Structure formats: C-alpha cells, structure tokens
Amino acid sequence: ERLKESPAMKLCQEEWQPRFIFITADDLLIAVPGSDDISDRVPLHEVEAVTRLQENLSDSLSGDSFENFGFNVHTSKNGYNCGREYCFGLESQVELEDWLSLVSKSAKVAKMKFAKRTLIETYRQRVLKLTNSNIWQRTSSFLVAANLVINIAQSQAMPVNGSNTFAIFTALDVIFTVIFTAELSLNLFAYWFWPFFSSGWHVFDFFVVTISLASLILSDLPGISVLRLMRTFRVLRLFNKLRSLRTLINALAASLVPVLNAFVIMVLILVIYAILGVELFQDRNPETFGTFAIASYTM
Fold it and tell me: Model confidence at 54, in pLDDT bands (50, 70, 90)?
C-alpha cells in the first residue's frame, strides 16, 4: 500500500533527472515517469538519516517546474544500498515538509519492526540449535522411555480409582504431559510454520501431545478413556529421537513400494498357474484342482 507518491527530481551523476517516488510501510521506491517498473528501492529500516539539501537548487533545476526544495536520504553502509546517498528535489515547501516527516517516521517504525523480527529470528535459531543438540535428544528419549516404563507399571498394578497408587500414577502422567507439551512448544517455535507441519514426525508429536492434553483437561467427559489410550503411542516418538531407529523406520517405509510390487508379481504368477492347474488337472484330481479357489490354495 502506497502511503504517499509524488513526482520528483533525482540527482544522478551530478545531473537532475525526473523520477516518480512513492513510499510504502517498508520501502522508498523510485520509478521512471511513464513506467510501472521500479528502478530502485531503499529499505526503510536501512535509512540512517533524512536531511534537507543545504543549497538552493534553482540553478541545477534550470527553470524546471520544480522549485528550490529537496532532501537527502542516507542509507546504511552494510545494507542493501551499501551506504548510497539519494538526493531528491520537490516542487514545493509543503511537499518537502510532508516527505521529510513521512520518511523519518516510516523509517523509525520500519527499524522497530525489523529489530523485532531479527530478535525473534535470533531466539528461534537458538531454540533450534538447542532442540537439535545431542543432549536434548538423549534427554527427550530418556523421558519417553521412562514414561513407557510407568505405563507398563500402571498396567501391571491396575490401581483402584481413588487410591494413593492411582493418585501417584495420575500425578506422573500430568508431569510427563506438561514436559512433552513444553517440548512440543519449543519445536513448534523453532520450526514455525511450514517446516514443522511438513514433517510427519512433528505432526505425529503434535497429535499425540494434543490428545494427551485433551484427556487431562476434559477428564469428566464420557468416553475420554478412549483418548487416554493414545498415551500408549508416546513410545513411538523414540523413532524420531534416536537416529538409528529413525533410519530403520525410513528404510522400511522406503521398501514398502518395492515389496508391494514383488507381491503383485507373485499374485499374478499364482493366478496364472492356478488357471493352468484347473485346465490341465481338473478331471484327474478334482480335490486339489477342481476350481480356481481350490487350485489357488493348492499352489
């Protein structure tokens, strides 16, 4: 969305040339009059300063309709424009004041937005590095295994509802659910958005943890015990935590199509020989080749 647009003169190699300038929330854009193509852009978060031109521009403008009003835009040396300075001439004092105020304010807002994005991205990279570390993966795997052991113990003990043992297992389940929810939140922040949901393992984690949370929050709903059964599938998260297991699962998944093709070939061969068996041996041995179904079973 264009916040303001104006015809202007732009200083190019000590010569003033007509341009069309307009400003958005993020950029100061420059175009050649009569063309919709952008010839240059200045990211507003890289604007170091906006100043007035010190000298009268009337001589340089050589009688053009543009009068004696202009401003400079100073850019960052390490930015997109490599410290380049832009000089613009306008046609009135009112235009000059409007552009000075608008560019200065927009640059300040853009810098704040850019700093915020940069800060979030910095934290995201730190969280990503943490969640990919060996210590994090091993700790997470240990917690998943410990949760499995507790589920086994609970299934073996079968504590009565309301007993101390039942309360202990319930508290442990709440603790593990909170831990796994915190882990999921960190992964969601580190891989936000599409990288997270494009991973089957992450989607599986999201599904299991969400079901676990729902079983705790909605514990009084009828049939909620069915949702609690999903906690058993937490152990499958080990396949994502341990690289060796993940490699094995990926290899098995990759082999499904070739194995299915081999199975189809085997079925076709079986069908061919079953048909031949019925045609050739139906009269001689009807007990084993009397029909196609019997011949297939015989083969």
Answer: low
pLDDT for res 284: 87
Domain 132-252 classified CATH 1.20.120.350?
yes
Q: Which residue has the tokens 């045609």?
A: 279
Write down the domain spans for the chain. 4-116, 132-252, 256-298
Task: For residues 111 and 233, give the distance between their C-alpha atoms in angstroms, rounded to a whole number.
Answer: 47
Chain centroid, CA 152 distance in Å: 36
Model pTM greater than 0.85?
A: no
CATH tag, 256-298: 1.10.287.70
Single-letter residue type at 48? E
Contact 72, 87 (CB under 8 A): yes
Side chain identity at residue 86, one-letter code: Y
State the CATH architecture for 4-116.
Roll (2.30)
Nearest to 10 by CA among 70, 64, 65, 63: 70
Averaged pLDDT score across all residues of the chain = 87
What tens digit of pLDDT does each residue of 238-253 get? 877 777 777 888 888 8
pLDDT digit string, tens, across residues 169-207: 999 999 999 999 999 999 999 998 888 999 888 898 899
| Distance (Å, whole) CA 84 – CA 43 | 12
* CB-CB neighbours of 106 under 10 Å: 22
Q: Locate all alpha helices (DSSP H) within the chain, ordered by sequence.
A: 58-61, 93-131, 134-157, 164-190, 194-197, 200-217, 224-228, 238-241, 243-254, 256-281, 286-289, 292-298
What is the pLDDT at residue 57?
A: 47
